[in-house]
Amino acid sequence: MTQTHKLYEVVAVLANNEERNIHRGMVGTIIEELSDNNFLIEFSNQDGETISLAPFHSENLLALEHATVSSVSNY
Q: Does the structure show a pLDDT above 60 at 2?
């Protein structure tokens, strides 16, 4: 299943990039589409400072969504 990603979307990475010290599960923001299904992801610290930039293919990205308690249905 191919997922379409958008600029400034918050994503979790599903693969490591040891060269840039990025590990599976880290959260970043898509800041540029490099080529078809390849994106540049920015990773920031708690102060909003960029700590790393790394390219990832869309297959290695999981879009994250914020949900409020009122928007979550009862189980």
A: no
